[in-house]
Amino acid sequence: MITRSRQVALALTALLAAGAACQARGHQPDARPAPPAADTGAFTLVATGDVLPHDSVLERARFDAGGTGHDFRPMLAGVRPVVAAADLALCHLDTVYGADGDHAGRPAFGSPPQMAEALAATGYDGCATASGHSLDDGAEGIARTLDALDRAGIRHAGTARTEAEAHTAGVLHAGTAQVAHLSYTTHTDGHPLPPGRPWAVGLLDEARIIEDARAARAAGADVVVVSLHWGTEWQDEPDERQAALARSLTAARSGTLPAVDLILGTHAHVPQAYEKVNGTWVVYGMGDQIAGETADDRGRRDPRANQSSLARFTFAPPGKPGERWRVTRAEFLPLLFDVDAGRVVDLNRVLDEGADVRAVRDRVRDVVLARGAARDGLVMAR
């Protein structure tokens, strides 16, 4: 019998062997400047929070498209310079794509597939797709979403159309590194897994994550990135389960190397802290990058739902054989989704232009740094 670990390793080995033939980018080669890897082999990785288009967001995208279809590119234009400049950019899709014309922003989400085109145009290379809304439209919703991402040239991890796809770790190329991207969610918002398809959504399980990470490492991945849809909604502080899982995942080994090189968290709807745990960076929660006005668990409108952070990590090759790729620079950018304008805003940039957003920028900064990340070198980028 071939175990899940062996299946992942075999599938990943085939992908790695494809080398340059496996194109990680779905946008044109001139969409971003030449990476710094040409001289050093280093690469920059950018990640952002939940893409969760509520009805007001869909209405704005329809307006930006001139009333026909949906255009999300203007919505993301504010972060395109940072995203497109990275060697590897990862997003998190919190929703599935709806059937033609069947789009809704709550409670069961069905986003327009044009979102995938906008993500590609912004410079994203891959997206985590395991979330609480992964099964809002059953297996058909998963297939529709992954088909749209494929058409846009965006890699994906976390949900699957077939069992073989579920056991194939996504591999992206950045600089001279081959990066495995894994994605899991704590729940599917009460929706059961489709009959006969227990593999359709990557459910968060510590042993499974470590097994998959080790399989990816054994198959040749230089860097293993794990996206986790976890945590307690509306809570700035990571909960006890997040903290405990972060400790165990970052302590797990794959031979002489850590099993996991970076953890990227989503789901809480609010920004959460970054922390270096056992020598590995953990982003407990980036917040919602795109979302409409949102009420918290008490039914009150909570402006934190429109605040988020963009994470940027620079990885350098090992100093000597047998060592890990190391993070040489850790940065974050405070972001805001302007619900009136329907735009993602780089708070530092608009602050420099005179916008009165200092209090919001400072709140995001304080939350991100709340667990002492500045002592380990995390800085707010400009």
UniProtKB/TrEMBL annotation:
Residues 44-293 form the Capsule synthesis protein CapA domain. SUPFAM superfamilies: Metallo-dependent phosphatases. Keywords: Signal. It comes from the Bacteria. Residues 1-23 form the signal peptide. PROSITE patterns: PROKAR_LIPOPROTEIN. PANTHER family: PGA BIOSYNTHESIS PROTEIN CAPA, POLYGLUTAMINE SYNTHESIS ACCESSORY PROTEIN RV0574C-RELATED. Belongs to the CapA family. This is CapA family protein. It comes from Streptomyces tagetis.
